[in-house]
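Milestone M4 deliverable, item 7.
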Amino acid sequence: MYAQFFGNFLLSRGVITRKQLIDIMQKKADTKVKLGTLAIHAGYMTANEVDRIYILQTHQDKRFGELAISEGYLTEEQVTNLLLEQEPDFLLLGQALIEEGIIDNQQLQDLIIAYQSDNELDEFTYSSETQDAIHHMVENFFVLAERSLSHYEISFFQLLLNNLIRFIGDDFTLISPSNCREYPTNYCISQKLNGPFSVRTYIDLPEDTCIAFASRYVDEEFTEFDEYVSSSLEDFLNLHNGVFSVNMSNEYSMELELEAPVVEDKDLLVFNGTECYLLPIIYPFGTVYFIFEIFKSE
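Output delivered:
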């Protein structure tokens, strides 16, 4: 899940624009992380050393690993390990940025160090993607108010991200959430959970984005906006909230009542007296907007 947070990290640092991010995400699937980028991430080589090997490759018909070994930057064992280990997915985004000329190896090296430091990540965390580590990243990312998020809220958001990855695809980037007092709708569906933890979740998309979202969800190619597309969106919300409700019952003996999804017919949603947050999520096919209206327990 680290790749989804890395895109927002780049946006917040002003490294790329939203348009550049969307363009890069569309190209990421065809990108392969180079050995030099892996060596930088692993801390085996500096960006300057990697650049030197790339220059040597323009004069010698040899592979990167072979030259890095002969120049004393890497051992054969390190090259083997780099080739065998599964690299963190966010490096694909970094590699694509390099290939598009948006950043260079030195900038990527600095960004990796800053990203790891900000999120307290290490090599073990990358390789395992433990739920504790992801829980920590979700907690840091959703800095929504002066108060800290409750354990239930963090679990809710973490499950949503997992469900997006599982049912829609992992090629998305999170945009920092913001307070929301009113929101002009495109096509919007909502569903409310009632109980000790009460929240209404809205999902809002332009029609063309609805079609793409629904196509991925049911693994069937829709070509027009119709009741099947609408039903698919309702089903995604119902699935997410239903699973969350079951989790709360199993883990905390908390019983939640799940209302039926509804289509919002208002052009403008206005939120008064509740905590409400907007979370845009960028996919290559468009931006999906989630709104979370959190109700105080009685």
